[in-house]
Amino acid sequence: MSLYGQNSKIDGVVCGLVLRGGANGQYEAVFEREYASLEEIEAINWSQPEIEGESVLPAGYGFEVTDIRYSASTRSYTVALKVAAQYLGDVTGYQAQVSALEEQVAALEAQGSAAELTEELESAYTEGVESNG
User: Fold this and answer.
1) 84-98 residue pLDDT tens
2) What are the residues facing 83 on neighbouring strands?
3) β partners of residue 31
4) Non-local CB neighbours of 78 within 8 Å, separated by 6+ positions
5) 43: CB partners within 8 A, 6+ apart
6) Distances in Å between the alpha carbon of 15 and those of 50, 77, 118, 127?
7) Which of 55, 65, 76, 90 sits 20 to 30 Å CA-CA off 18?
């Protein structure tokens, strides 16, 4: 008989309950032994878990497991988590865009330097012609 139900899944492992921890960025995920083994819980990719269903765990974040406790009275594992990183997804498109913009800036700076040099040369030529003329 389930105490917490089957509210969500984390990397395909049924999770009965997720609570906010005592400090900011800390959580506790409760897995009933009826639905999840310790090996399955340890195999979860906590650095980038796939969360299905209702959960207070923020989507797109990675977590660090700080503790796993077993309670014989509830026949459940409690996994203490803290936020490790936010996963931003595939950013290769943005990286290419940034590289292209950096190239444009470098080209514009080079054009600006060339224009300044041209102005200096024209100014020096004009001064030379006027002083010799």
Assistant:
1) 876 666 666 777 777
2) 63
3) 77
4) 28, 29, 30, 31, 68, 69, 70, 71
5) 11
6) 12, 10, 70, 82
7) 90
